[in-house]
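As agreed, record copied across for absentees:
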Amino acid sequence: MNIPALKALREQLAVCGGGAAMLFIDPANVSYLCSYPCRDSFLLVSSKECFYFTDFRYFEESSRAIKGCRIIQVESSLSASVQAVCRRLKLRRLAFEPEHLTYLYYSRLSAALGQGTELFPLPGMAEGLRRVKTAQEMTKIREAVRIAAAALRRASRMRLAGRSEKDVAFELESYMRGLGAERPAFGIIVASGPNSSKPHHLTSERKILKNEPVLVDIGAEYQGYKSDLTRVFFSGKITPLEAKVYEIVLTAQEKALEAAAAGVPACEVDAAARRYIADSGYGRYFGHSLGHGVGLDVHELPRISKHENGWLLPGMVFTLEPAVYLPGKFGIRIEDMVLVSGKGTEVLSGDLDK
């Protein structure tokens, strides 16, 4: 179990009063609190105990792997199992994750608990703790980054022209698995030519042509932790416009890296890149946030956007991915993962060519 996280969580629950406990259902949050990759399982955290609800498929595995927690095999329904624990502990208040609990399950759980236990929403509890990574988490993230970076280096050596986007994605996925990845962190994006102007293009059967850009957005999952990197390759000659836009995006990322440091509001980092792209005449072609946190989820806190006023803290890991997308022509995005430290920032993808 993640003892420091549980201690911090219980301190926050104590503020809620009434001996409140909390039910976690989001897989990443359950995995984080249990320090184990959980599937189809739920966690109830009370002031003194933890209860892990799972079914027959995972009962033996979790009983062996998760220590310091009562493992409960769900026989009939989860709501009935949760109700039994609440009754035994005489819980008067039970918090839930409003971002993840469906209305249907809320209705069932509420009916099972009746008037004896109050259900109340408590958003962002585990997500807030997950913003800052521990040394153990960083070891896994660094390995996930290493694998994805190695795959991009392989892509840079591939003869892309004449191959389909899906064929390239399949080779890169196989390569990452061979390096130790459990799976891709998300569906690999290979976007060639005009497809690269679509930020989240669905990798297709389109054949890559000579003399066009090929955007590859890739990540690996290693022991539950993710990575997320993007590079643009060229299958031949580079046009003056492509070269110009590439330099703008690259410089925008450098501006963001210079701005990023502990104590700096996230919106200022976003502004550093966005301002440069706008001053270069391409502001309307950069429509998404500059970055996002990466960890157990490929998109998590912190958000690096113009709307995020929260400060960067040591231990935060996030992407910096400025871009320019010219509809029907091409898109350029350069994405790296960054770790904030007390001394500045570290680009986790290191010397990966840009």
The chain is about 35% helix and 20% strand. The chain has two domains: 3-129, 135-347. The two ends are 40 Å apart (CA to CA).
